[in-house]
Amino acid sequence: MSVPVANPRPDAEIERVLAVVAHPDDIDFGGAGTIAQWTRAGIEVSYCIVTDGQAGGFEADRDRAEMPAVRRAEQTTAAKHVGVHDLHFLGYEDGSVEPTRDLVRRLVRVIREVRPQRLLGQSPERNWSRLRVSHPDHLATAEATVRAFYPAAGNPFAFPELEAEGLKAWDVGELWMMEHPEANHYVDVTDTFDRKLAALMSHASQHPDPDGLPARIRRWMTQSATAAGFPADHLAEPFTVIRLS
User: Fold this and answer.
1) What pLDDT digit, counting tens, does each position of 71-81 carry?
2) How many domains is the chain built from?
3) 155: which residues sit within 8 A by CB, 6+ positions away?
4) 135 burial via Cβ count (<10 Å: 0-12, 13-18, 19+)
5) Strand-pair partners of 188
6) Cα 131 to the chain's mean position, in Å?
7) What SUPFAM superfamilies does this protein map onto (predicted)?
8) Burial of 150 (0-12, 13-18, 19+ CB in 10 A)
9) Is residue 4 part of a domain?
């Protein structure tokens, strides 16, 4: 089934955005250029990172016990490059994420705390043409995010214990997905590419070839801009946007 035509709300109507991803650096690969535009426009953006990325990295002799602290610090630095200062780390184990009721509850908690008008997440559908973006943690986190988006976050009878804490139901209304196999919306991020690249380079523990990263990212983003019909030499990030009626 094809996704509907994108109909995102104008950015001028958005005050707060929450981005939910599986690993530190996921948001920077998928959407940091767009987030830099949002924060520049005065939109408050918060991050929710589900795992600490313990299974990431390329150094065989690194003490794996150090990785959670390393990756949280890298993500915090990366976020600052694109104007984000509110980060929620859930601390799940890298490689073991499932869309459990516990994870959905924790995402609903963050949604009700942040009260965003736009939710940015990953795709629960596997992209066979780019399998690397469909890591099992991405799929599981995305599925839990969609369940939190609808119906749980906006249902006062879902997770009544959160209501009892004063975290009232909140309808986000708009879901943006990265890495979905059927993009229906593109954002021209030519002007914020440098900030996106700075965010990506902050994840030093993840880049065995940092010198080659800029050209690789630029190539992907040029392909997206071409697909969107943007002018030559422009760069874009692709999304799939879903709005609740």
Assistant:
1) 999 999 999 99
2) 1
3) 169
4) buried
5) 236
6) 17
7) LmbE-like
8) middle
9) no
Is 112 within a domain?
yes
Domain that holds residue 163: 11-243
- Structure tokens given for 37: 């535009």
CATH of the domain at 66: 3.40.50.10320
Length of the chain (residues): 245
How far is Cα 45 from Cα 43, in angstroms, rounded to an integer? Answer: 6
Nearest CA to 205 out of 20, 78, 31 is that of 78
Beta-carbon contacts of residue 208 (< 8 Å; ≥ 6 apart): 58
Structure tokens at 201: 């380079």
Does residue 1 lie in a domain region?
A: no
Tokens of 241: 């946007």
Q: Which residue has the tokens 């973006």?
A: 133
Helices 213-228 & 193-201 angle (0-180, nearest 10): 140
- Tell me, yes or no, whether 6 lies in a domain: no
**pLDDT by residue (tens digit) across 193-230?**
999 999 999 999 989 899 999 999 999 999 999 999 99
Q: Which two tokens stand for residue 67?
A: 């990785």
DSSP for residue 113: H
